[in-house]
Amino acid sequence: MELVPNNSLKCATPEEGRQLAIQLALQTAFAIQPDDQAEHIIRDAYANNPDGIIAASHVVATEFATVAAANNYWR
Amino acid sequence: MELVPNNSLKCATPEEGRQLAIQLALQTAFAIQPDDQAEHIIRDAYANNPDGIIAASHVVATEFATVAAANNYWR
Amino acid sequence: MELVPNNSLKCATPEEGRQLAIQLALQTAFAIQPDDQAEHIIRDAYANNPDGIIAASHVVATEFATVAAANNYWR
Amino acid sequence: MELVPNNSLKCATPEEGRQLAIQLALQTAFAIQPDDQAEHIIRDAYANNPDGIIAASHVVATEFATVAAANNYWR
Amino acid sequence: MELVPNNSLKCATPEEGRQLAIQLALQTAFAIQPDDQAEHIIRDAYANNPDGIIAASHVVATEFATVAAANNYWR
Amino acid sequence: MELVPNNSLKCATPEEGRQLAIQLALQTAFAIQPDDQAEHIIRDAYANNPDGIIAASHVVATEFATVAAANNYWR
């Protein structure tokens, strides 16, 4: 399994950086729970669980901080 | 969908930076739960759930740290 | 609504920086839940909920990290 | 009320920095919930609630990151 | 027990850095709860607990921030 | 009580840095809840509570970020 798509933190734009942050968060979840149920469990949780959505958004924010620093904030 | 409004972390002022941080947090939530119910679920959660408000504020604080660094803290 | 008081992260002292961090956290909460009930909901939550106090303190700590960096730690 | 003891992040040693981090976390809690019950509520919560202890430790860790950076890590 | 595999934060690639971040998170868990049940408890928790998966992903994101900085973001 | 063992963030290796991060997290917990029950409460919590293990691992990750920066990431 690939934990970091294309094995790189380089992104051309903030939008791409944000997509990478979401991918990093998802790939960790699948690495932790690598069975066929994982995606189902996670999607169900979000469907009825706003706390889960907020908690996942926090993970994405943390990943994005790293991706943005890696790209020198696209300055 | 646009995850980063205007595809840029540049903001003229801290106030604009703060608005961007809130937008970044919201766009992640909609990316995770992209159905018509998402906004309804999230608003309901906040209406009766102070813990949800605090948790969401934490996400915004984390996003703002990145936006502020990207703008060299408007020094 | 003003998300960043005076639209600036500049603070003369750590004490002022700390006050700003608390204000930033509160303004986000009011931006998320902008009705007349918001302040009531949040105050009730704290009155009986030590976990809420700790969670809110974490948000303030995260905001303060940004404010302190913005002011070069008042060195 | 004083949010930052002595209005300074300067500490002679890591041990003093750690004490400041704990003080910063506590002062925020009292600023949020400024009544006579606050200390009682918080102490009760810790007495029977290991999750509260861990959550509070996280806040202290976050404060200490800022204090340590402010003191250039006592290098 | 080894808390840091190979006692080094150096990684050749972001993918290796991500694997290290996951290992760091796991080794802490085993250090905290060092009995034969630890792995069983943790795996059970993930099997039925999407919140646990998200919380663990947050830990990995935090570890990865350090690993990425240590490797100068593989720039 | 000593909050920072040897009153220093200097560590020869990442492994020692990791041990310090765990010690910092534990010493905070004992500072918050300084009675004879504290260690018992915390150990019980971990025995049956994977969420507690993950939350504590998050604290260690946050402490380690500071220790690693203090040691310039052992580069």
UniProtKB/TrEMBL annotation, chains A, B, C, D, E, F:
UniProt-listed Pfam families: HTHP (PF11534)
Protein's recorded name: Hexameric tyrosine-coordinated heme protein
Annotated source species: Arthrobacter zhaoxinii
